[in-house]
Amino acid sequence: MGKPENIKVNNAFDLSVTAKNIISISCLEDIKQLRQLDSGPRLVLGSATNVILDEYFDGTVIHVLMHKITQGDNGVVSVGAGLPWHELINYCLTQDLYGIENLTLIPGLVGAAPVQNIGAYGVEVSSVIHSVTCYNFATQEIETLSNVACMFAYRDSVFKSKNYMILSVQFHFQKVFQPDLSYPSLVQFLADHHLAHDEVSPRVLSQSIQAIRESKLPWPEDIPNVGSIFKNPIIETDSIPADFLEGHRWLVADGQTKLSAARLIELVLTGIEIPPTLDFYKKHSLVLINRGGAVFSEVTELLRAIQQQVQLLYGIQLLVEPEIIES
């Protein structure tokens, strides 16, 4: 028996993907549609900048389209989950709201930001999140979770459980500009452009971050990708030789070291066949790109081959950064 007529699902990696059903949430009234869903699979999807989707999703894809921004009397700014992240960056720059300049040019929607606690250049979004309003699929009620209840961690949160659908995010931005300029590549950029730290304005900081990102990372609408394809592994410092990956490792807390996943990929790629539909971005070997016509199985087989080689040669486990969603 053939599949019913399916609905195309747009995604940042530009794979050919369809779904059985799609629901759009444009206002709170639309939540009623969710209470009528059967027990089949469901997938809350924004612009799909951090997922790799199989060719068919046999369930309901849910899009949250709400994008209104509201400033409350208590200084909290509520933002609809469907607003593109870059539009929130621009809004904050015009409204003298500070704290997310380092997160400039991260692709995706506001609703995706808390899920993996997006971070870049020394700043994580959890540092400015007051609370998150979401729909609880178990209770079928709308709830607001405090920052603590969101259980934020490195690239993690309670929302990865998929028990919630984020409707809006409440931010408590800084009213005084106190930039974090500590990240090495940002320090280097400012020095190269003769920008003194005490002369960096919010807009200059945002523009600097944009320039750095554009020099390394392709925008998904121009070159299909889902950002970093692997997480930088964090291991016990005394488990590796002192000179292992020299120049591509960083000490972190509690006797641990973060290793460059990009460098590990470079070291093993010579022994791996890459399909002609795929490639690693010439400016950043951690970014896998779709050259056109790539299919899900090609992507997953390539990632598995890289993981196996890194494990075999160096005894290090590479974890895939985007979520892989199979049929």
N-end to C-end Cα span: 17 Å
Written as H for each helix and E for each strand, in order along the chain, the element string is EEHEEEEEHEEEEEHHEEEEHEEHE
Unreliable spans: none
Class per helix and strand makeup? alpha+beta
Q: How big a fraction of the residues is strand? A: 25-35%
Total beta-strand segments: 19
Helix content: 10-25%
User: What is the mean pLDDT?
Assistant: 94
Radius of gyration: 21 Å
Describe this structure in words.
This protein has 327 residues and is of the alpha+beta class. Helices cover 20% and strands 25% of the residues. It has 6 helices and 19 strands. The strands form 6 sheets. It has a 5-stranded antiparallel sheet, with no helix packed on it. Strand 17 (278-280) and strand 18 form a beta hairpin. The longest helix is centred in the last third of the chain and has 19 residues, at 296-314. The chain is globular, with a radius of gyration of 21 Å. The mean pLDDT is 94.
